Amino acid sequence: MAADIGHISQLLNATLDPSQHRKAENALKQEASKAQYSLALLNIVSSDSLPANTRLAASLAFKNFIRSNYV
Question: pTM for the whole thing?
Answer without folding.
Answer: 0.90
